[in-house]
Design a protein that fits this description.
alpha+beta; 2 domains; 6-stranded antiparallel β-sheet; 6 strands; 14% strand; elongated
């Protein structure tokens, strides 16, 4: 498999029982097949030094703003998106095979962002409530007012269908 950044041949290494492709003596990037990345993205998870410090060729210059093609899927351009709510690290993800490409140094930076998955989710929740909390509270108040009106309306017409009457269960009707 060829590196999507510098076209160097990727080297397969086994880290904690998982085969990971690295661009050794090239740009220093790392390729994770679907779901492999989740096993290395937290500081508490064992990541071999091979992934944090991939040997790079200092003469290779890459343009990280360039969109790249998936090294596994034919001519499929990878999506760029932020790894987390902090918007500090952009990763490349294939929409076809769900593989993830990390450029040199991105894995180390990602592992420094949050101590655990729970901390990452809590940070996202805090941002969500900071952004939408007041709107959600206003909507909840509005919904509660509408519910109270609906109950008052339903109570007004209780005499039409008494609680003793169950439709389809009595032969004598509602009255």
């Amino acid at each position: 498999m060829q590196c999507p950044r510098c076209s160097n041949e990727l080297t397969v290494i086994n880290v904690e029982g998982i085969d990971v492709d690295i661009c050794e003596n090239g740009c220093g990037g790392v390729w994770f097949d679907a779901f492999e990345f989740k096993k290395f993205d937290e500081p508490s998870e064992p990541a071999g030094e091979e992934l944090l410090n991939v040997l790079q060729n200092p003469n290779i210059r890459i343009d990280q703003s360039q969109r790249i093609k998936c090294p596994k899927c034919d001519n499929l351009v990878m999506m760029r998106h932020f790894f987390s709510i902090k918007k500090e690290v952009e990763i490349d993800e294939c929409p076809g095979c769900a593989g993830i490409w990390l450029d040199a140094g991105e894995l180390a930076h990602i592992r420094e962002l949050f101590e655990s998955e729970e901390a990452r989710l809590q940070a996202a929740e805090e941002i969500f409530y900071k952004t939408f909390g007041s709107e959600m509270a206003a909507q909840q108040t509005s919904d509660e007012e509408l519910l109270a009106k609906a109950r008052r309306f339903a109570n007004f017409f209780k005499w039409i269908c008494p609680t003793a009457y169950i439709p389809g269960k009595q032969s004598w009707g509602a009255f």
